[in-house]
Amino acid sequence: MYFSSLDPDRSQFLAARLSGVRKTMPVPAWPRSERELPVVELEVAWVRFSVINHRTKAEQIREQGKAGRNDLFSRDPLGEEAQRAQYSILCGQEGFEDLKSDLKSRRQQEPAIVTADGVLINGNRRSAAMRSLFVEDDVRSAQYITCLVLPADATAAELVDLETELQVAKDFKQDYSWINEALLIEELYERENKDFKRVAERVHRKVEEVRDYYEKIQQVHQLVALSGGTREYVDFIPNETAFAELAKHVKNKSESEAKAVKDVYFLGTLVGVEYRNLRHLRRPDAAELVVNELRSHATLAPLLEALPEVSGSASTSEDDYLLDSFLEEEPAVSEPLESVLRLAATKRPEETVQAADGESIEMTDLMKSLRDVIKSAAQEAAEDSQDRREITAPLERAEKAAVELKRLLDALPKARRYDAWDEREFSAKVDRLEGLLRMVKELS
Q1: 17-63: per-residue pLDDT in tens?
Q2: Which DSSP symbol is given to 281?
Q3: Does the residue 276 lie in any domain?
Q4: What is the rounded CA–CA span in Å between residue 32 and residue 16?
Q5: For residues 11 and 150, is the Cβ–Cβ distance under 8 A?
Q6: How far apart are CA 311 and CA 226, in angstroms?
Q7: Structural domain boundaries, residue 435
Q8: Contact at 8 Å (CB) between 123 and 87?
Q9: Quick one: pLDDT band at residue 315, thresholds 50, 70, 90?
Q10: CB–CB of 27/149 below 8 Å?
Q11: Pairing of strands 352-354, 360-362
Q12: What pLDDT digit, counting tens, does each position of 279-296 carry?
């Protein structure tokens, strides 16, 4: 990491700038006992953005994919390429223009925090906004940014702790997406010997909340990996509730049910089915319901016909597969829905697939059809659940009534000990109960 060996030229420059500086400010979040840090003004174009900023981790993964470079931010973190990419990410975040307007009118209100060679640990977005104001909008008041400077021997762990305390633990600021929060929590979990209690203490949250974030991101990891690079972590920022419900449901379920529900949730999320519909499919036969809808769909039925286990063919030639148009290796066909999911995950919207009957299908049309199919399956599941509730409701209510009557028998002797007890009123209520029971027996 860049902070394990400071850039000598930059650190010497900043040390010279600090020479003679007397002004300091306390930073309560700094983990050391000496929390007073020197204050200095630095040119906004000179400071460097932190490329280990957890606020932008998912966006960095996306940019690495676009560039085809896993070392985009690690090979030369302070170099022009990495810094330009990080600046672009920061400028593209929601609310950036509002932040610029605020800084233009009110100027900088809180100091940023930098390492001894001028890398921002806190204040990256403000610095990017000020740089944009100065460089692009020629706002001269944004030329310098006020910074607090950390000691030259600050460690990686101390910097992560500081970022966590300043930007996450206090209030989980709005510019932290849930994906990036979860990625940070996952990193802390590994660092804290896989102890959720210790992570919860770090971020000032309940243990169950931290665990939920960790379990949600595990589901996202699986779907991103399944896509083979087609889908990015940032694509799933709008789907937090779906991943939360999925992670909670599969936790204590059998392997078969967990897989069925996971496949349906993953496919539904990819094609844009709302979580309110998907939740009806949290049941052991979820995959079966969706596959049945696929078989009855005119456009999608050829997809299932091309799968060996469905058609009954044992052939493994390329002509037997719908998926040969986009998979280099033979697809897993242990379950029809799995191959459909793989198709939706790995194909881009602008692509087409070749169906078993030779027809080309636009992915945009295919995704819409899949969305309709899953919604239909969800509706069927909802109606089935309603029917089951209606069937079991009388039994459940009878059981509750029996429990209440048992409580009545236990409470009656105690109540009769008091002078204020009204036996006549009680007898009237018993008569009403007897009348209701007669009606129930007459219906049976």
Answers
A1: 999 888 999 998 898 999 999 999 999 999 999 998 788 999 999 99
A2: G
A3: no
A4: 24
A5: no
A6: 25
A7: 398-443
A8: no
A9: very low
A10: no
A11: antiparallel
A12: 999 999 999 999 999 989
Helices (H) and strands (E) in the chain, counts: 18, 7
- Name the 3-class secondary structure at 125: helix
Tokens 């697809």 belong to 331
Please give the structure tokens belonging to residue 375. Answer: 């919604």
Mean pLDDT of the chain: 87
Q: Where are the alpha helices (DSSP H) in 272-362?
A: 275-278, 286-295, 301-305, 308-311, 336-346
For the chain, the helix, strand and coil percentages under 3-state DSSP, each to the nearest 5:
60, 5, 30
Residue 279 lies in a domain: no
**Could you give the number of structural domains in the chain?**
2
Among 138, 155, 172, residue at a domain's last position: 155
Q: What's the whole-model pTM score?
A: 0.71
What average pLDDT does the segment 77-99 reach? 94
Q: What are phi and psi of 173, to 5 degrees?
A: -50, 150
What size, in residues, is the chain? Answer: 444
Examine residue 31 and state whether it is found in any structural domain, yes or no.
yes
Residue 47 located in a structural domain: yes
What does the block give as tokens for 209? Answer: 């909340």
Residue 297, Cβ neighbours under 10 Å: how many?
17
Start-end of H helices in 107-206: 124-131, 156-163, 178-191, 196-203
Rounded Cα gap, residues 407 and 329, in angstroms = 65
Q: Are 344 and 373 in contact (CB under 8 A)?
A: no
Q: Are 43 and 144 in contact (CB under 8 A)?
A: yes
d(CA 440, CA 444): 7
Neighbouring C-beta atoms of residue 143, cutoff 10 Å: 15
Assign 122 to helix, strand or coil: strand
- Residue 160 confidence (pLDDT): 81
From 101, 124, 155, the end of a domain falls on 155
- For residue 17, give the H/E element and its range: helix 8-18
State both tokens at 435.
């009348």
* Token pair belonging to 306: 């091309």
